[in-house]
Amino acid sequence: MERDVKSIVAQMTLEEKAGLCSGADFWHTKAVERLGIPSVMVSDGPHGLRKQEGEADHLGLNDSIKAVCFPAACATASSFDTKLMEEMGETLGEECQAEGISILLGPAANIKRSPLCGRNFEYFSEDPYLTGKMAAAEIKGIQRWDVGTSMKHFAANNQEYNRMSCSSEVSERALREIYLPGFEMAVKEAKPRTIMCSYNKINGTFSSENKYLLTDILRDEWGFEGYVMTDWGAVCDRVKGLEAGLELEMPSSNGINDAKIVEAVQNGKLDEAVLDRAVERMLNVLFSYLDHTHEEAVFDRDKDHEKAVQVEMESAVLLENNGVLPLKNEQKVAYIGEFAKIPRYQGGGSSHINSSKVTSAWEAAKEKGRNVTYAKGFPFDSDTRDEDVFQKAIETAKNAEAAVIFAGLPDVFESEGYDRASMKMPQVQLDLIDAVIKVQPNTVVVLHNGSPVECPWADEAAAVLEMYLGGQGVGSACDALLWGEANPCGRLAETFPYHLEDNPSYLNFPGDGKKVQYAEDIYVGYRYYEAKKMPVRWAFGHGLSYTSFAYGNLQLSASDLADGEKLLVTVDVTNTGGMKGKEVVQLYISDKNHTPGRPVKELKGFSKIELEPGETEKVSFEITVRDLSFYHEELRDWFAPDGIYEICIGHASNDIRVCREFHFKTTRLLPFRVDYTTTLGELLEDPRTKQAISHFLKQAEEETARAGGDTATESDKAMMQAMMQAMPIKSLISFGAMTFEHCDGMIRQLNELISNYQ
Predict the structure, then answer these.
(1) What is the pLDDT of residues 488-499, one digit of tens each?
(2) What is the DSSP track for 720-745?
(3) Among the options 25, 146, 231, 502, which is catalytic?
């Protein structure tokens, strides 16, 4: 069905158009009714539906229909499985169609800058490439059902403290390399229908009125075609926002901002064409849903629950294992900790799902007839200690053949709205883990948390299984993994440092409430730890399996790469163990040219494969010049210098199995203008000036030799060579090597060579 949107907008009054751009009015405005357009609904997400029915004034944060709670992004990112994410997205999309939801608010593509961010459980990773690929996959799946998504929170929203007003002070390079690529990748690959702008300022300008962000980058550079909505209450200046590229204010301002828009148009401060364009963009998205409804869509909660279980099984990460896992059916096993019966499986705040059902690990074990006993040990919702309960747990563990402690962070420790105070687990849990390990050598710790925690007990535990916030099927998934019915295959999407103080943002998080300095720049997560050669508890990409894998036969399609070309990379991976399993093959690229300010290596590809024992599969990757590049602030574009690059493929960021180098040659040259402060080293490095300055230096050396001054030792020569590299042109005058006139002439000549270089 073709809609003439421009004609529809032309029929609307100024007041109606302004009202359409304001919150709930977009869905229920009289203008929409007059034009015969049905009202529609949006739902919070991103890992389940929060459809709220009834009078808005009487609805609480958790008042919504019964729905399926899928694993949070902190878990699903660890699957490293884009196919799985698309499948989860398709399930959510069908649920939305069945419930009349036009837009699901998510996914969230913010970077995990600090482990303390209270909303980290909604975010995928510390790595922008992984973030972008997982977000794009989820969006593709959801929108396959003609339901829109609203990728959030654009951009640099990496803390909860004063999130509605604080300014993220971040360099252009860090924005482009760390905080924007996840959004960029998803916009280009998946085309989300809407984008949700963040509350915060970016370098002093609110996201909601940031033209550089919402128009210059999002639309002009990336080609975004949908509309931008605010996070709830993020509008500051409504008219400035419209001009910057913000279409929809959420929620409604009850007509206050509508009147400001009307007034601005009437007094000539706002071009009505800007308002018309905003309305057209929103109607295009609205019609993309209304004109493609799916009567066949069904919200089958039981079926979707099983999908949630599968997603969590693929996402959980086995961090440590001395051989105690998988548990054996004949073993007597003690389950310790109230999380065993009341799991923490989702985060707090606007993403909270009214779950259709929740399966605990205890329930799953009893259903399977496992030989398990239970002791509470500690409560699921607080850091309090009952000595009798505590001691009973120790005794229960001692009398078993193995103990599984279900630990993690209570709801109150991490939530939307505030940041965590530390990386520590509740003290009662730490004390009980230590006590149980002393009496039971086969102690397994299962973690339920939305972000890394300090684990001082990890070296003593027999095994550690990270479930994250695994959705309503977390108990069933955990049971299958503990008892060997499924093989763990998740990999960490973030680094676990030993201590909070190790984190690169530690000295600058969360700022003074008005500004937060992103002083670590591009060195976020593993980029920082590797540059510092700092040991970590568990590295980015780490995860164990009940089988083993070998890598070999790394091949590149060429040994040289040029502008506009692609490089095909293949590697053979073999399951060398005795159990079917999945491996996440990770590809990193390293700049070997000593380019200043570049990380040791960066993730640029991954592939999850399943192999039977003894089976080998050839895994392929395609590398482009963008994968080699960094963002050059002076050039205001991506740039890869000439030289050697290395492909590194392995099991984790700290477990690289095979490497191979190749050469890249570019015809692109950086902007260069010679002046008195330009160093001789810069002139020698640039191909446009190298020959001329080399000729000058050779002449100077020959004149020195003719004058009998070449009596320097090898050490003196090395010192002089180093000094010459750093010497600015103006110093040649000071040392008597040339006159001011000669120096001016040389500068003019060098700049002409640069201008005329072919």
Answers:
(1) 999 999 999 999
(2) HHHHHHH-BHHHHHHTTSS-HHHHHH
(3) 231
